[in-house]
Write a structure and sequence with these properties.
The chain is of the alpha/beta class. The chain has a single domain, classed as Metal-dependent hydrolases (TIM Barrel). It is 44% helix and 13% strand. The chain has 13 helices and ten strands. The radius of gyration is 18 Å and the shape is globular.
């Protein structure tokens, strides 16, 4: 399929580049580093070869969210956004941007998002999970009430918010099993928990036009909606939200194919959520555009659904030309 749009596609500047090194060996790091720093010819060559028309580019992880010092986090986010805007300005017909935000200070995050959308032309925000505020041990999640005015600004600006993974806050459970911390399991477990906190808090009742994006086929949540909804309904401990999780997924949540190139999984998600809620992505450069594109182009779904997932859902969601 030609004309695909990908929206979990990463870059880095020097400020946060080292954050991506720990998950790969030295032999892989040389190429990964070069690909993260490039938002130009190397990236475009992959896009052209495998039918990707546009990338919505975002900062690598955990980046800003890992910086305990609030002032420094704000400065790093702003520099990253300015750098990304410079890259996009060279090829605006091929690249769009997600804002990096220092969620340590909700008011500052809202101001930076407004600047990125109104002045830099970005199409939303991508945030790498909880923020370490003040210390590495203080892990702050965004369902807390101090963040609700920020969410009001997100709704006002009418842009999606991509909740992207980072290593789990409850790292003790992974001691002795470091291979589980990252994409193998910990990323999805952490991000899924954060998403359920947001959905179950009542946030989407107060701001019903919020759009949340989850990568990697929904961070395992589509396969657990039935059980989560049944058990929450029976819980004696209360549930603040007015709707069940499935209803929010059907009205407020989109998922992507980033880094999860499995036909059986895609079809399960289509059955649970519908093709209108799924967006093609590759997770470049941590995953190969080639693998993502060749799998998606050949996967046995209808051509109408392929067009929706491959480009039309993203084009409408982000109001792309």
């Amino acid at each position: 399929m030609q004309g695909k749009i990908g929206l979990e596609e990463h870059f880095s500047g020097e400020d946060t580049l080292a954050d991506s090194q720990g998950f790969v060996g030295d032999d892989i790091w040389r190429e990964l580093k070069a690909n993260l720093l490039d938002v130009g010819d190397r990236r475009l060559a992959q896009m052209d070869r495998y039918g990707m028309e546009r990338m919505i580019v975002s900062l690598n992880a955990p980046a800003v969210q890992k910086i305990p010092d609030t002032r420094k986090a704000i400065e790093v986010a702003r520099r990253a956004n300015d750098l990304l805007a410079e890259h996009i300005a060279r090829r605006p017909e091929r690249f769009s941007g997600f804002a990096a935000l220092a969620m340590h200070d909700p008011e500052a995050a809202a101001l930076e998002l407004r600047r990125c959308v109104k002045e830099l032309g970005f199409v939303g925000a991508l945030v790498n999970g909880f923020s370490n505020v003040g210390s590495a041990e203080n892990c702050v999640y965004y369902d807390l009430k101090q963040y609700w005015p920020f969410w009001g600004v997100v709704e006002e600006l009418d842009v999606p918010f991509y909740l992207h993974p980072r290593p789990p806050s409850q790292i003790k459970a992974y001691e002795g099993h470091p291979w589980l911390v990252g994409p193998a399991y910990g990323f999805a477990a952490e991000t899924g928990l954060h998403a359920l906190r947001l959905l179950g808090s009542g946030l989407f009742d107060k701001y019903p036009r919020l759009r949340l994006i989850l990568g990697h086929m929904g961070e395992n949540l589509p396969f657990h909606l039935y059980r989560s909804d049944r058990r929450v309904a029976w819980s004696p401990m209360g549930y603040p939200a007015k709707k069940n999780f499935r209803e929010y997924f059907q009205s407020n949540v989109f998922i992507t194919t980033a880094g999860n190139f499995r036909t059986q999984t895609l079809i399960d998600c289509m059955l649970e959520l519908g093709a209108d809620r799924i967006l093609f992505s590759s997770d470049y450069p941590f995953e190969a555009v080639q693998e993502a594109a060749e799998w998606f182009d050949a996967t046995p779904i209808s051509e109408g659904d392929r067009l929706k997932i491959g480009r039309e859902n993203s084009r409408k969601l982000f109001r792309l030309p």
